[in-house]
């Protein structure tokens, strides 16, 4: 029995992280402290004015644990990681887990390329961004390639110059073919320098060039070329227009402001790079009524900048936050250059913060009803599922499916849903390696064993949570008792305890109910829970089928009949026309096989012997 008062006496006066648990042993709050002894005791002192959230939380705490660290900075880093992993109920939670694209210019190469990148790597390349739209990044890259005819291939240049013919891009005038030596290193590098200039927000040079080319083409009566230059001019002006907000300081900074109402909050972020606004985005947070804007901003910064690959030199905030200096130190360490948190009081910077706050309030007001509907479809549906199964704290769900063609090239799919939404970055594909023929149970056993063994190994190596490392709160199998038992056997062998539920279909292949604890549970077909289960089942099936189709299109899938000596296309066609499936052919006698027009006694014997 955990005695809270006795355990409070044992707390050390050192920095660290404390973790609060409820009666179901779920983690409901994670916090950090410069002195664990002083901080944790405050929660259980009746004389303190704690606020609504803390007072409510304390009533649910049945035990706590703590981790001592060497410094408060280490405690902050650990707190961020634990919040991201466990998503505790009483912490301010960022609802969106967005990843922003960058434009990467491989300036370290002799003939550099330009491409979309999802993260910044220390590889001597130049990165521009982050941008809030992958579509905008692709449009910009396409525009740059049309303007400068930069290569997009992976050839190693100059080593591979002249080894292969130029690609299609050369023939459609979108590449100057450095792979053939048709452009010098100096000329190519000059184009790269202009591209970097352009990505830094300097458009005047390109606009003047294009206007001159358009005028020259018109005078030479080359009207098709003139139209092409006019369209390029229009594209450059559109990109320039999107970055019309400027900051004369020319620095990299993020502008952050929050608007909140009861249990909903929105943080608006303006991304300013080189003094120009390159994008903006808003983020929804789950809060508790009574939380201050300072607390919301602090929670957002810890979660957002723990995961983003780029941290600017300054964060401009709506108001001062708690642990201001500590968070500055943490961000500086992550960025490896000094980061400042500022609260501007006058001038253009203050106006930008005001503009961000107005945008946050506008989003919160207009999206409130949409958010409620979305929550019903996602979190609300998960809550219904929890009630149906008698479970609590379902955040992550994983569903599995198998696909194959005539018993060959079986593949498995793993799809992941978090808070009722697909988390596509964590989807995984499996080629079945150790199973011959169409054996879905054995294939599922292989997939699940590989998935969880891989996860256990990654956890032992201390990898970040995600992908294989993050384990589900519920496993959903695309079938009933048989598939559920396969999953339970795998988990038992690996000493893992995870609830497993089967998604049972009727004769028309539609979801009928859930198989859980040896019982089929009916679902209301009009409920959000039913719609969510159907979406997950369809997604697992779609993902497996798509993977299998990709393999087939690459010529990697064939029929088991292809491996039988003496069975060519004509006999294979006869067999598949006469018998329903591979199992029927496998179970056929020599006499039955001989009845087919194209199969004689010898080939019938070969087929029978192959399977037996």
Give a written overview of the molecule.
By secondary structure, this protein is α+β, with helices and mostly antiparallel strands. The chain folds into five domains: 4-91, 3-Layer(aba) Sandwich (GIY-YIG endonuclease), CATH 3.40.1440.10; 102-242, no CATH class; 253-367, Nucleotidyltransferase, domain 5; 396-553, UvrC, RNAse H endonuclease domain (Nucleotidyltransferase, domain 5, 2-Layer Sandwich); 560-611, Orthogonal Bundle (DNA polymerase, domain 1). The chain is 44% helix and 19% strand. It has 19 helices and 20 strands. It has helices at 4-9, 36-43, 52-58, 72-86, 134-148, 168-171, 185-199, 204-219, 223-242, 293-307, 324-335, 347-389, 440-460, 481-493, 528-553, 569-578, 582-587, 590-594, 601-611, and strands at 16-21, 27-33, 63-68, 93-94, 102-105, 114-117, 126-128, 253-261, 264-273, 276-286, 314-317, 340-342, 396-405, 408-418, 421-422, 428-431, 474-477, 500-505, 511-516, 519-522. Strands 13, 14, 15, 16, 17, 18, 19 and 20 form an eight-stranded mixed beta sheet that branches. The chain has a six-stranded mixed beta sheet with strand order 4-10-9-8-11-12. A three-stranded antiparallel beta sheet has the order 2-1-3. Strand 17 (474-477), helix 14 (481-493) and strand 18 (500-505) form a beta-alpha-beta unit. The protein is flat. It starts with a helix and ends with a helix. Residues 243-249 and 554-558 have low confidence and may be disordered.
């Amino acid at each position: 029995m955990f005695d809270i008062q006795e355990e409070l006496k044992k707390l050390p006066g050192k920095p660290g992280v404390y973790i609060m648990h409820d009666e179901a042993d779920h983690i409901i709050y994670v916090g950090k402290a410069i002195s664990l002894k002083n901080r944790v005791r405050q929660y259980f002192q009746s004389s303190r004015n704690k606020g609504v959230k803390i007072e409510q939380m304390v009533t649910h705490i049945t035990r706590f644990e703590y981790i001592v660290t060497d410094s408060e900075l280490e405690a902050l880093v650990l707190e961020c990681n634990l919040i991201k992993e466990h998503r505790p109920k009483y912490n301010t939670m960022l609802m969106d887990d967005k990843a922003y694209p960058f434009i990467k210019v491989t300036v370290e190469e002799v003939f550099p390329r330009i491409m979309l990148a999802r993260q910044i790597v220390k590889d001597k390349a130049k990165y521009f961004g982050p941008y809030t739209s992958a579509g905008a990044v692709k449009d910009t890259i396409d525009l740059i390639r049309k303007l400068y005819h930069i290569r997009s291939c992976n050839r190693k240049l100059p080593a591979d110059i002249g080894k292969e013919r130029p690609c299609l891009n050369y023939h459609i005038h979108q590449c100057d073919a450095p792979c053939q030596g048709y452009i010098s290193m100096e000329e190519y590098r000059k184009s790269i320098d202009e591209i970097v200039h352009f990505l830094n927000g300097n458009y005047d040079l390109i606009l003047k060039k294009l206007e001159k080319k358009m005028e020259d083409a018109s005078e030479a009566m080359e009207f098709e070329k003139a139209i092409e230059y006019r369209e390029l001019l229009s594209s450059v002006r559109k990109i320039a227009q999107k970055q019309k907000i400027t900051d004369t300081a020319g620095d990299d900074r993020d502008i952050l402001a929050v608007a909140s109402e009861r249990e909903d909050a929105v943080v608006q972020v303006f991304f300013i790079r080189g003094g120009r606004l390159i994008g903006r985005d808003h983020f929804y947070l789950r809060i508790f009524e009574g939380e201050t804007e300072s607390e919301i901003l602090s929670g957002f910064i810890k979660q957002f900048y723990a995961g983003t690959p780029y941290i600017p030199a300054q964060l401009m905030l709506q108001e001062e936050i708690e642990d201001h200096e500590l968070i500055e130190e943490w961000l500086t360490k992550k960025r490896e250059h000094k980061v400042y948190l500022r609260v501007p009081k006058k001038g253009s910077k203050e106006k930008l913060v005001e503009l961000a706050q107005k945008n946050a309030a506008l989003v919160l007001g207009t999206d409130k009803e949409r958010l409620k509907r979305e929550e019903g479809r996602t979190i609300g549906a998960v809550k219904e599922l929890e009630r149906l199964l008698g479970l609590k704290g379902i955040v992550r769900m994983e569903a599995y499916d198998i696909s194959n063609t005539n018993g060959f090239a079986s593949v498995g799919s793993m799809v992941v849903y978090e808070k009722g939404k697909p988390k596509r970055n964590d989807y995984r594909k499996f080629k079945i390696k150790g199973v011959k023929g169409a054996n879905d149970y054995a294939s599922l056993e292989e997939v699940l064993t590989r998935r969880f063994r891989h996860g256990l190994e990654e956890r032992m190596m201390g990898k970040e949570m995600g992908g294989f490392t993050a384990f589900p709160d519920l496993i959903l199998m695309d079938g009933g008792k048989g598939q559920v038992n396969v999953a339970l056997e795998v988990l038992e062998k690996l000493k893992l305890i995870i609830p497993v539920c089967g998604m049972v279909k009727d004769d028309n292949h539609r979801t009928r109910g859930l198989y859980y604890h040896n019982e089929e549970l009916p679902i209301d077909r009009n409920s959000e829970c039913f719609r969510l289960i159907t979406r997950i089942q369809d997604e697992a099936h779609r993902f497996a089928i798509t993977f299998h189709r990709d393999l087939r299109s690459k010529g990697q899938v064939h029929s088991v009949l292809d491996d039988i000596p003496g069975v060519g296309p004509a006999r294979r066609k006869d067999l598949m026309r006469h018998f329903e499936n591979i199992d029927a052919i496998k179970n056929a006698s020599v006499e039955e096989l001989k009845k087919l027009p194209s199969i004689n006694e010898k080939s019938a014997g070969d087929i029978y012997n192959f399977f037996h």
